[in-house]
Amino acid sequence: MSPATPAPESGGAALELLVHGVGGATPQDMLDDPRTVRVTGDRTAAVYRRAEDLDAEAHPERYEARPVPEAYCWSNLTSGNGARALWLLLLPFMVANLAHWMRPPAQGRPGLVRLYGVLVRLVALTLTVLLTAAACEVALDLTAWQCAATTACTDAYSWLGFLSAGRGGWWSLPGRRLALAAVVPTALVGLLWYLSNRTWSAYEAQRPPTGYDAPVPEPPSDTEAADAADPAGPVELRPALGRPGFWYGRRLVARLRAAHTAAGFLTVAAALVTAAARHDAGAPGLRVVLGWVLQAAVAVLAVVVLWVVCRRGRSERRLDLRVERALVTWLPAASLVLLALTALYAGWSRPGWTSSGTLPGDAAFGALTLVQGGLVVALGVVALLLQRPRRDPRTALRGLGGPAVAMLACALAGVMSGGVAQRVADWLDGPATPGMGDHGGPRIGPPVLLSWQASVIPVLLLLLLAPAALLAVRTVLDARRLRSSVEADYDAADERDPVRTGQIATGRARASLTDSAPVLVGVVSGATLLLGAASVAGAWASGNVPGRAFDGAHPAIASLASATQALGSWMIGLGFLLFVTWGRRAYKDASARRTIGILWDVGTFWPRAAHPFAPPCYAERAVPDLTWRMSSWTRGTGGRLVISGHSQGSVLAAAAVWQLRPATRSRVALLTYGSPLERLYGRWFPAYFGPEALSGLNRTVHCWSNLYRATDPIGGPVRVPAEDGRPAVDGAVLLDPVAYGRTREHPLPEPILGHSDYQADPAFARHRAALLDRLPPALPHQRVPDEAADQGSSGRSSG
Asked: InterPro entries, from UniProt (predicted)?
């Protein structure tokens, strides 16, 4: 690592801070120089310069014609070895977390804002309970209860022989088998707690720049709707992303982690105590009393978990460094102790107790499905009530994006839990048709509801064929319609090339498909809600008889449902393999990240406000890094700074600019290109990137310019008009390719770049130069104290 940047002797320097996008980039590529030096940072995220520019501040006369380029590389925050693809298994948690940030904008309605946050957190809690219950279904019900009770099944899988009820071993008693199998879901919950705690320490434990964290009274509700004053100005005049505590949610994440961990342990304890208490119900003695006491204890702790989840949301008005250590420690610990007691209770010797049928999982999964559906519907009602009288027509799904995405999170968790249970049941049941025993014993099958949920997967895919076909037809028609505008843009009347024109028109038509995402999400979410309700109704109609999921239906319907259930079961297994394979490729292959990674990077951009087991938020490291660097450099040099962000890097740049003090923002220009700020974030997250927020960003930063192409499927205009003497942020649409045919300047055919290589366009340098010219002259330099100079030169991201 290089020595600290030397303190300048005179003002006048200009800095261009480059922030790459989703695909990631090396410092050598960003700076177009093989000799780069790390100025500050570590291997996870760092700022680099060319070796020849290392002492640029000491020689500003060398850089009068161009700014000093610096590259902030953050790709290691979201990429790495293939093992990180396992984070994709946390996708339902990430999607639920997204729903929190998709609420409509609201003013003066703190009660509704708080209720919206509470409902999303409750949806997230049900996901933890659902996936833990699925692990209990596989380990306790299918393996330890059903398979171990069947001699043919234990003979087919010798590693289960010591659990066989027919061998009469110590572990052959049903309660002891269940207690031993409970280790699997308990270990899963412990792993989720460990990953959440570890990723927080590794990625999100970086404090934002200090100075805004003077004591402020804690608001009575979620601070998204707070309107009290703070040390940096009135909260109502400061956007949410500019609040001091926005990128440091340590307190809430710790609370939620404790609550979700306890909920997982309590789910396992409930499965154990319910099975044992059901057997003891008719037998007098101490065991009956103990069973009731343990069930009451589980219920009491469950109420405490609900209270912890509902009680408090995010604290953003200040840098909140507090952690409620007593709550964070005792709640998971008490739940784990109760789980151990229930395991001892279940392992109590009960002569004559045999495992037959299934454990009472149907009622649990059915109740969870109904609760999730009710919460999503309530979330939709609150989202509608939060709508302003003048609703932005570009907001995705008319402000119902949050409820729709929450429904998708529940659907993903249901597919994963039901799919795993169904596949394990098919595996234990032998090579016959799923659910039809082939080992001569009773059929081994999951709860009926999970079988019905597997059967609706092919139906959902068929429903998606219609909008997919319509979009394909529309793309072809748009490509034909755009041919004339392509030739007009390039003034190609004298050199028409049908092939070249068709390529450019098709590129523009395909790029416009991104704007159809709300339609697809709405169709999938609505169909999922209806099909989920049909699954619950079908399970009840069939009498919840294990192994006979469709016996209560008409023979033709039962035959069709059985076929779709078998197909859905196999599709889940195949989809899971493809899911992990694509995830590994997205982490290791830059080209795959450009197509797959944008969705993942959007999800992990936001802090963990609803689900603590979601993948880590890279912005809680990247945004403080950028804020520290801009603040320290402008304070130390008095120079001008252009922060230049591509794609997702433009979102990080905007978030970092919002965190700057007004005096620093007056010396900063923002250049965005290929930016999803309005096209994606503004439509789906209107409370944080809506029209008013983006217009406010334009008013607070000294100047802002946005570049985009019609062939870019991700970036687009930010739609901030000219106001108060400021020009419109969006420039003219950049032509892509830069030349239609061969010219003297471009003797070889130019490629269609789409979302990449914006800096290769000559317009990029012109817009950057224009921004620098609009910035005020450099301030006369005043040497800062040694401590401040050290802090500024190092640009540390931790407080």
From this structure: AB_hydrolase_fold
